[in-house]
Amino acid sequence: MTMQNRVVVGTAGTTAEDVVAVARGPAQVELSGEAVEALAAARRIVEDLAAGPEPVYGVSTGFGALAVRHIPAGLRTRLQRNIVRSHAAGMGPRVEREVVRALMFLRLKTLASGHTGVRPEVARALAGLLNAGITPVVHEYGSLGCSGDLAPLAHCALALLGEGEATGPDGAVRPTAELLAEHGLAPVELREKEGLALLNGTDGMLGMLVLACADLAHLLTCADITAALTLEALLGTEKVLAPELHAVRPHPGQAASAANMRAVLRGSGLTGHHQDDAPRVQDAYSVRCAPQVAGAGRDTLAHARTVAGRELAAAVDNPVVLPGEGRVESNGNFHGAPVAYVLDFLAIAAADLASIAERRTDRLLDRNRSHGLPPFLAGDAGVDSGLMIAQYTQAAMVSELKRLAVPASVDSIPSSAMQEDHVSMGWSAARKLRTAVDCLGRVIAVELCAAARALRLRAADGLTPAPAGTAVLAAMEEAGVAGPGEDRFLAPELAAAETFVRGGGLVAAAESVTGPLA
To answer: Which of 175, 201, 227 finishes a domain?
Structure first.
């Protein structure tokens, strides 16, 4: 549970809110008394089995395809240290700090469950890294999404040993041993099963799923607002948003998006103004079907959150300690398929939401379809190009999103001498989803710039936008996104619009009139 800036980790899992609070904020973590007791109880089982003559996977054997070797007691500390060192084999760019912190916190959550068999001091050491702001350097490549996110988790476990590199609160990369010493933290010497327990989880892909869900929930609201502004700027009709129409196709996300759009358009002086020279019986799909597409994205997000909730309540490890039965058993719970599927599903939803937003933008810029707006919303078309190339940029990102929507989870590549012969590729699905979410935010920002410019042009012609739209226009100007006029250096305005969207300014401005939106 989260208590202001403190997150208490117990035996029953955690929440998405806790993950975000630790990954992105200053929240400190601590183990509950119940968790410490569960850790100690599970550890006693591991130590009893370690003292016996029978080989137990992860306790007194090698790993993966090397599990056939029984390891004598004198080599087991070295065994656990070696698995961390050898598995810390990632390559490529550094992974973002928030992802690594989410990964570490989720591994701590599993340790605290009492199903991994590590000593309480190992869990406390991991909490100590988080609380000190020490973030191990984790690399882009190294996880196949099965047997856990092995290389990423190994780089985090390496920091517990005082090895490898990490960043401190200032973000500078330094030797981990120096950072531990500065914060009064001692390296850990791992014992039976502990190295393996620090590596065998879906924590990286789950952490990225939780963060993406939070971001997509916000962007879906932003997309409803920009779709409403575009409908208004195109003199469309709000009649298609009537609740009775959406009740006959009772998808909850669709109803929520339509309700958001109705709220933003309430009081508009533009909607329904069909032009005499080009009468419209109905608006184009990209306008008329906005709630259906965004609503499908909302329902996809709801499914992803259900899967994430189950994972947040899980203890993913192999082997797993069953305290009630005094057993340690091998299992396949580390397979990332449940998480990988929804990561890919969200990437599909993000791509389609961006695609329909780009089609609306293009309609605003095309004088043949914009119902009286100037070409490309330019000040002096021909001398000025307006937002012509902003739409090119938007289209490039939509094309990228379509490529990112190709699922990673349908791929598999065998590893570990065919012992691990089917993998989820969930880490890859998560990495591309993060890129997709970033692109979606930018795509929505471009539509917002076009819709806002069009609304200002309509206002100059005597048509009054809805109060919510008026509030958005005022907030955008304060945020550095100017209105129509002659051409100017556009990239800074697009960047300001992206910050306005991603940082909450768009939703806050609309909600200042509408009240809370879904």
So the answer is: 201
> Last residue of a domain, which of 178, 201, 224?
201
Shared domain for 93 and 186, answered yes or no, is: yes
Please choose, from the candidates 193, 25, 167, the residue with its C-alpha nearest in 3D space to the C-alpha of residue 94.
167
pLDDT tens for each residue of the chain, 518 residues long? 444 589 999 999 999 999 999 999 889 999 999 999 999 999 999 999 888 888 888 788 877 767 778 888 889 999 999 999 999 999 999 999 999 999 999 999 999 999 999 999 999 999 999 999 999 999 999 999 988 899 999 999 999 999 999 999 999 999 999 999 999 999 999 999 999 999 989 999 999 999 999 999 999 999 999 999 999 999 999 999 999 999 999 999 999 999 999 999 999 999 987 655 556 778 999 999 999 999 999 999 999 999 999 999 999 998 999 998 889 998 989 999 999 999 999 999 999 999 999 999 999 999 999 999 999 999 999 999 999 999 999 999 999 999 999 999 999 988 887 878 889 999 999 999 999 999 999 999 999 999 999 999 999 999 999 999 999 999 999 999 999 999 999 999 999 999 999 999 999 999 999 999 99
179 and 229 share one domain: no
Q: Where do we find the tokens 């065994």?
A: 79
CATH number at residue 476: 1.20.200.10
What is the phi-psi region of residue 114: left when phi exceeds 0, alpha when psi lies from -120 to 50, beta otherwise?
A: left
Residue numbers annotated as active site: 57
Give the whole-angstrom CA distance, residue 41 versus residue 38.
5
160 and 137 fall within a common domain: yes
Q: Are residues 246 and 163 in the same domain?
A: no
- CA distances to 22, 135, 203 from 152, rounded to whole Å, are 18, 12, 9
